[in-house]
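Pilot study result, target chain (587 residues):
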Amino acid sequence: MAKKIKIFDRKNEERVDASFGIHNIIDRISDVIIKKKAETEEEDIDIKCPKCGKMVNRARVVKHKYVCYECGGYFRVKTSNRIKMVADPNTFVQWFKHTDIENPLSFEGYEEKLQKAKDDTGLDEAVTVGQCKIFGEDIVIGVCDARFMMSSMGHVVGEKITMAIEKAIELKLPVFLFCCSGGARMQEGIISLMQMAKTSAAIERLGEAGLLYCPILTDPTTGGVTASFAMLGDVIMAEPGALIGFAGPRVIRQTIGQELPEGFQTAEFLVEHGIIDGIVKRKDLKKVMYFLIKAHKSKAGSFAEFGDINTKYKVSEIVNERAFYAKEKTVWEKVEGVRSVERAGALDYIGAMFDTFVEAHGDRAFRDDPAIIGGIGFIGNQPVTVIAGQRGKDLKECMRRNYGMPMPEGYRKALRLMKQAEKFNRPIICLVNTSGAYPGIEAEERGMGESIARNLMEMSALKVPVLCVMIGEGGSGGALATAVGNEVWMLENATYSILSPEGFASILWKDSSRAKEASEVMKITAQDLEGLKVVEKIIPEYGGADDVTAAAIGGFLRENFCEFLKKYEGKTGEEIKQERYDRFRKF
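Predicted structure:
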């Protein structure tokens, strides 16, 4: 008589319940042994890296999350492995698995090709969508798989993505989509093209609902997918080395005969040119996704959810001693001081103010301007959008950051991040430090005046609290473009002026050598501007802002910024906007 036996392979964590006779039991044990042997042999095989071409051990590559341990090149990852990398174990639930696929153009051989793709991959289509958890947080996730007809976008791909977004709106969940595609599916012609508009419209509705959409671009992401759902994220990330572009290298070569330079259309190229926010390594991906989920969960009217944190900063004896013996600086000494490379910069204060800070990049159109840093920081549980001018601490960094003089794309990056902050109800802090906007041909060609004017108008209407702090030199409209705040503070030795003392003396007195004299009459110090009610608070420098005092200054800013945010608890966006309007209306 057959007996019910439980076979449990502990190493493989596989349990099988079945009714077996003795021969069945022996056969089953043999099958398990054969399976384990096959898996071991598979792990021992060598595979070719798609980047460096070397033969590498498959087991080691898998252990490194499908990254070559020789060159760091990324292997393409199938859907099931991609989900395992980011989803909490056993939390993924697939949606819309059985969606009917049609042949809208009656294209010959299309059904057979689809069936072969299904048989080869075990997938029903090129994209898989569903719900899962990341460190306990619910999200909607989608994964495109290059094995299925190069993950081309047919009507079912567009439909599944659209339905997933619609369900995300219903469930009030963020959406993360791993993008990979050769573009629109040629066999479906114009119907495939319509998916670009359909998915884009769905993403717009997700944004209207105040929900996060984050595409992660993998190799390759091209064509109609790039020109639709891949490039419409609140935050756009990419894997290192991924090919990303609208017209791929082969299309460009065959259409206009142009050969692309090395490194063109890579993820790194897109960061440099301001198109995406940043590059994320697979080993960090799950943590970054969790950070983004938490950073975009702010509730309306709540701006000070710090949690159990200690905002009391400590000032060292050395700093206190410096502050005690510090002498009052003349105006010209302050002018020279804010221009010194020894002076502490925005990054020094960000490190002291925030528990975590992740930088975002680019204006989504032309370039990432390093003169302006932008990103999201956390004080306890409270996310904050940070906009900061950075000049540089040595000659090399100063040149890379253009000595802190932003280009139009810098202001457009700042505005993009501020509008994103408004969408997700995040407060904003701007650390201002620039001698002014860059006065050059390139800046004029790219619309410097318009970019500053746009910032002034849009910042005035933001419905979240905005604090602006002059940490060094505040020069002209270039500084004001990120200084339209509900309150404006200044470090005690910072300056803020209509233009440089040299420019002032040159225009009014036709003699730039009288700059020192001009600085005395321009009323540009923190003390002058507090008297004029242009600034609300003066921040102590403990004898001078440098590497020694940066932590103490940052600690003071952290504590006072927390108090600033508490004043806006429970206020509506319209009330916050009106307060800022009234502040500038009085001048």
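One observation from the pilot: Residues 1-21 have pLDDT under 50 and may be disordered. A full batch analysis is planned for the follow-on phase.
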